[in-house]
Automatic annotation (TrEMBL):
<dbReference type="InterPro" id="IPR036291">
    <property type="entry name" value="NAD(P)-bd_dom_sf"/>
</dbReference>
<dbReference type="GO" id="GO:0016491">
    <property type="term" value="F:oxidoreductase activity"/>
</dbReference>
<comment type="similarity">
    <text>Belongs to the short-chain dehydrogenases/reductases (SDR) family.</text>
</comment>
<keyword id="KW-0560">Oxidoreductase</keyword>
<dbReference type="InterPro" id="IPR057326">
    <property type="entry name" value="KR_dom"/>
</dbReference>
<dbReference type="GO" id="GO:0016020">
    <property type="term" value="C:membrane"/>
</dbReference>
<feature type="domain" description="Ketoreductase">
    <location>
        <begin position="7"/>
        <end position="193"/>
    </location>
</feature>
<dbReference type="Pfam" id="PF00106">
    <property type="entry name" value="adh_short"/>
</dbReference>
<dbReference type="InterPro" id="IPR002347">
    <property type="entry name" value="SDR_fam"/>
</dbReference>
<dbReference type="InterPro" id="IPR020904">
    <property type="entry name" value="Sc_DH/Rdtase_CS"/>
</dbReference>
<protein>
    <submittedName>
        <fullName>Short-chain type dehydrogenase/reductase</fullName>
    </submittedName>
</protein>
Length: 274
């Protein structure tokens, strides 16, 4: 992968899944890495893999919802490496539950991690990315930031919000002529621990949901997802879709407009566990 050698890249949620795969691919491409996660065991495993590749790594426990800590962390990364070129705001959680039976706190938790975590990371690192003269913000939304699903209102809200925030930032950087590129990523089903790590409202069979996701919905490996993301980053794409599922459903929504909602409310209950 071209264009990453010597760059300093920050990856949140790097202790598992797409974050770990991104960190490994970036290291292979010659980047120096600042990786973080709340899961320190998973993070240590990622760190070992990066160290074995011979790159400079800074690994820290970081909860992306802790804004002041995140801002301090951005300064630390800059001081450690001397510059920061790229941030991959990747850390995220999933939650399933219909609005009617979801608690406010569950919806707020998803917004805190999946939306505010991205805002915190973007704002904390933006001054450093501008100062680098060659910056890039990469925010991980979802296929569920392009279309909504029953049972996914909280996750949909957070991922649509990431898309809106990131697409506005893209335009602002261009208008201000800042040397910062901006990419929004929309993965379809990726083979990671996300469904197993997810929470659900009471009454939903969590194990059955996770099993259904792992067997039927997760079609792309995390490694392939990371390669597609880095390819999009190197080509300065504003929007990156990952997987045939993401491409097909994005097309369906664009063709049907708001009518996809009627279609989904008929099809989804017949298709999988709820
Ligand atoms: N797997 C998919 O099918 C899929 C699809 C679309 C979007 N995504 C998005 O991709 C991103 C990565 O997810 P993944 O599939 O690799 O899941 P994953 O569960 O394997 O990894 C997510 C990582 O984020 C970390 N994390 C969770 N809360 C955190 C917090 N508050 N602060 C810091 N780290 C935290 C977890 O500890 C974990 O290591 C997420 O934003 C997710 O929403 C995933």
């Amino acid at each position: 992968m071209q264009g990453f050698a010597g760059k300093v890249a920050v990856v949140t949620g790097a202790g598992s899944g797409i974050g770990r795969a991104l960190a490994v691919e970036l290291a292979r491409a010659g980047a120096q890495l600042a990786i973080s996660d709340v899961d320190t065991e998973g993070l240590a495993q990622t760190e070992q893999r990066l160290t074995a590749l011979g790159v400079r790594v800074k690994a820290d426990r970081l909860d992306v919802t802790e804004r002041e800590v995140f801002i301090g962390y951005a300064d630390e990364v800059k001081d450690h490496f001397g510059k920061v070129n790229q941030i991959y705001n990747n850390a995220g959680i999933a939650f399933s539950g219909d609005v009617e039976v979801s608690e406010f706190k569950d919806i707020e938790r998803v917004m805190d991690v999946d939306f505010w975590g991205v805002v915190n990371g973007t704002k904390a690192f933006l001054p450093h990315l501008i100062a680098s003269g060659d910056g890039h913000v990469i925010n991980i939304s979802s296929l569920f930031g392009l279309l909504s699903m029953p049972g996914q209102a909280a996750y949909n809200a957070a991922k649509f919000a990431v898309r809106g925030f990131t697409e506005a930032l893209h335009q602002e950087m261009a208008i201000a002529k800042h040397p910062v590129k901006v990419t929004t990523v929309h993965p379809g089903g990726i083979k990671t621990a996300i469904a197993r790590n997810a929470t659900t409202v009471e009454g939903v069979d969590h194990a059955a949901m996770a099993d259904f996701f792992d067997r039927r919905l997760a079609s792309t490996s995390a490694e392939e997802a990371a390669r597609v993301i880095l390819d999009g980053v190197s080509k300065n794409r504003a929007r990156v879709l990952i997987g045939n599922d993401a491409r097909a459903l994005d097309l369906l929504v664009r063709l049907t407009g708001s009518r996809y909602q009627r279609l989904f409310s008929f099809v989804i209950p017949r298709f999988g566990p709820r």
